[in-house]
Amino acid sequence: MREQRLIIKRWELQSIEQPETEGKLQMKIELDMYQTLAMAVLVLMLGKFLRSRVQVLEKFCIPAPVIGGVLFAIFTCVCYVTGIAEFGFDDILKEVCMVFFFTSVGFQANLKVLKSGGRAMIVFLGLVIVLIVGQNVLAVGLAKLLGVDALVGLCTGSIPMVGGHGTAGAFGPVLEDFGISGATTLCTAAATYGLIAGSMMGGPIGKMLIERHHLLDTAVTEDDSLLVEEEIKHERHSMYPAASFQLILAMGIGTVLSKLLSLTGMTFPIYIGAMIAAAIIRNVGEYGGGYTVYMGEINDIGGICLSLFLGMAMITLKIWQLAELALPLVILLAGQTLFMIVYVIVVAYNVMGRDYDAAVIVSGLCGFGMGATPNAMANMQAVCDRYAPSVKAYLLIPLVGSLFADFLNSLVITVFINFI
Question: How far apart are CA 377 and CA 396, in angstroms?
Fold first, then answer.
């Protein structure tokens, strides 16, 4: 009988006593790792269905796992608060999917593209680094003024802003290990706000700059050969087995690198070694030419793992943990919004040349600086459809936003976590 219980996995329902103050019995519903994964797929399918039916969700590029996951998290919150049931999840596969996704991000770090992008790409990359550091400095500073833990402030910094839901789900558990209860929920709530705010402010700011400074007169046609070359590298060749092996190899090497990094005494996210290994494999292949890195297939696999990771991260949220930090959270997010508006208008617009391309870049920077690269592309498309194309913006934003931002953001966040 004992062996049968170990082999057969099923829903476990058990009654547990609530604290005496509530005087209720609550049913405990435990999902094993297979059921947790299946539930993540269900909320992903629900999110895709709702996004196809509700225009505002599509407009703001809200990820499908976030839509379905938030609804499920609200359901579990109601069950918990009313004493009907408490859900438990075996989320071991969440970590596996997370490492797969961030390993695919590491493969994006192509130094040859960075070098070929010239001065403009180097300057814009510098702007992004300053933005990442600025978001974290602001978050920590505001948290101290509000009298809350600096790590709580960090939950509204570049983790959810530049990082989005993927980084929020990855670093939330790290912050919880430092004693910040509900850090994953805080980071996810901030990331959801950032998606919406970044989408709402990008287009209007770009439009204001273009019309106030008559920038349409400065629009020029530029060479898009580098953009086309990078797109060709991301074409699919049905080499998914080889791409999977490359990802797994990078993850394996990454465990060794992570072990070496841990000897420094600093705390690193579990995937950082795999990201570095993937970047090394990509650039050795680019410069040496001894093998091909199948970027199109790696992107697809990474995208699938991100969806599954987000799905599992969202269904395990404990929304009721936000209650006591509601007011500080509102103030912290308002501060990030104001900082982004000032930064893109006063700093980014002027540094990038005060021309039409700079205005389009600003609209895109609002998108991925507070949300994700798809939001940035949507912002730029809205501006360019109204005025004129900007090859420079369409080159810089997706390349820096998807190739380098997450990589650098993870390193900066790690430094802040260990030294604040």
Answer: 11
Contact at 8 Å (CB) between 261 and 414? no
Neighbour-count burial for 375-401, b at 16+ CB within 10 Å, e otherwise? bbbbbbbbbbeebbbbbbbbbbbbbbb
- Whether the CB-CB separation of 210 and 356 falls below 8 Å is answered with yes
- Give the amino acid at 298: I
**Token pair in block for residue 214:** 């008559």
Residue 237, pLDDT > 70, answer: no
Kindly report the backbone phi and psi dihedral angles of residue 85, in degrees, each rounded to the nearest multiple of 5, phi listed first.
Answer: -165, 155
Closest to 311 measured CA to CA, from 303, 319, 323: 303
The Cα 312–Cα 184 span in angstroms is 12
| Longest CA span, the chain | 80
Among residues 349, 386, 350, 388, the alpha carbon closest in space to that of 366 is found at 349
pTM of the full predicted structure? 0.71
Question: How far apart are the C-alpha atoms of 316 and 91, rounded to whole Å?
Answer: 8
Q: Are residues 166 and 159 in contact, defined by beta-carbon separation less than 8 angstroms?
A: no
Q: Report pLDDT digits (tens) over 272-320.
A: 889 889 989 998 988 887 888 888 889 889 888 888 888 888 888 787 8
Which residues, listed in sequence order, are joined to residue 15 by a DSSP beta bridge? 27
Categorise residue 83: left if φ over 0, alpha if ψ from -120 to 50, beta otherwise. Answer: left
Integer distance in angstroms from the first to the last C-alpha of the chain? 52
Q: 3-state DSSP call for residue 279?
A: helix
User: Can you tell me the distance from the alpha carbon of 397 to that of 383, in angstroms, rounded to the nearest whole number?
Assistant: 14
* Residue 22 tokens, joined: 């509530």
- Residue 105 and residue 98: Cα distance in Å, rounded? 11
Tokens of 334: 């308002």
- pLDDT-derived band at 7 (thresholds 50, 70, 90) equals very low
* Buried-state track 196-214, b at ≥16 Cβ within 10 A, e below 16: bbbbbbbbebbbebbeebe
The torsion angle over the Cα atoms of residues 132, 136, 138 and 142, rounded to 10 degrees, is 160
Per-residue pLDDT tens over the stretch 132-186: 999 999 999 999 999 999 999 999 999 999 988 888 888 998 899 888 988 988 9
Q: For residue 92, count other CB atoms closer than 10 A to its CB.
A: 12
